[in-house]
Amino acid sequence: MIDFGNFYQIIAKNHLAPWLETLPAQLAHWQRQNMDHRFHQWLRCIEHLPNLTPEHVDLLHSVTAKNRIPLSEGEQKRIIHLLMSLSPWRKGPFSLYDIHLDAEWRSDWKWQRLIPFISSLANKTVLDVGCNSGYHLWRMIGAGAKLAVGIDPMPLFLCQFEAIRKLLGNDQRAHFIPLGIEDMPKLAAFDTVFSMGVLYHRRSPLDHLYQLKEQLKVNGELILETLVIDGAENQVLMPSERYAQMRNVYFIPSIPTMKIWLAKCGFHNIKIVDVSVTSLEEQRKTDWMTSDSLADFLNPIDNTKTIEGYPAPMRAVFTAVK
């Protein structure tokens, strides 16, 4: 079982306290629903990881933990085996005691593209919706956030996060809550809310934008990263079956359409701060994620198109204010 007691104690003292009216019962239900054989195996991996206190932690430039005296080869192999048992690792990379955990996505590149353009996270309480392994939660702490909360209902991602937290010395500034945003009350308590790589997986993108808005304080900032297409106002791609082999892609807007959606949901000061085509260097197979990746999803003759014939993945980062 994962113990959320420390998180309960932390939020009891701040603007997130109303969440305690529903959260403990929700998490107890989630744990009962997910106590299968695989989850028990993943929990054992976390338990068997050594309790290490790193002498050096860098969360500003990377997610790195190390000591002056390197671990023995046997200790490194043991940690690698346990972390490999939590594969596939989609988001990273992590550098842990000279072990390079090279995930499918170079999530550090996305962070470098957006961090110069967002409001300072210093002393802020932030929410990352669809946080995956929690890589960006640690970068948010490195950027000065006092509390970073990630939500994602996937059991494997929770276990990946808890494994990294343990190897970082049990840092309590970042927390992973295994729920979806639709399970959250309207807290209006976060200074900054991130939604990166989520919108196009939602059947109702406007409902998702309203849910994000409901978590923000007045004048709080939304950072939204999503797939987009080239096009004019009111143009949206709705894939018929799959997009880049993903079944659950519903709406991919043009950039002007995305700005209209944000304005319609009541956001203002809407800015587009980055547009980039996803490269084969940013998303690819690694030893830590060996199944199909972007190269397998693109047309082998024309990499500007997906295997289904749609425009290849292009992503944009928007900022907006409640």
Structure description:
Strand 7, helix 6 and strand 8 form a beta-alpha-beta unit. The protein is built from ten helices and 15 strands. The model has no long low-confidence stretch (mean pLDDT 97). The chain is of the alpha/beta class. The chain is globular and about 55 Å long.
Task: Count up the helices.
Answer: 10
The value of Rg in angstroms is: 20 Å
One letter per element, helices H and strands E, the order comes to: HHHEEHEEEEHEHEHEEHEEEHEHE
Major sheet: size, sense and barrel closure? 7 strands, mixed
Strand content: 15-25%
Mean pLDDT: 97
Spans where pLDDT lies below 50 across 5 or more residues = none
Distance between the termini: 37 Å
Helix-residue proportion: 25-40%
Overall geometry? globular
Keywords:
alpha/beta, 30% helix, globular, CmoB, seven-stranded mixed sheet, transferase, four-stranded mixed sheet, 322 residues
Give a nutshell description of this structure.
The protein is α/β, with parallel strands linked by helices and 322 residues long. It has helices at 5-11, 23-34, 37-48, 73-84, 107-114, 135-142, 155-167, 205-215, 255-264, 294-297; strands at 56-58, 64-66, 91-92, 94-96, 99-101, 105-106, 125-129, 147-151, 174-177, 190-196, 216-228, 236-237, 252-253, 268-277, 314-321.
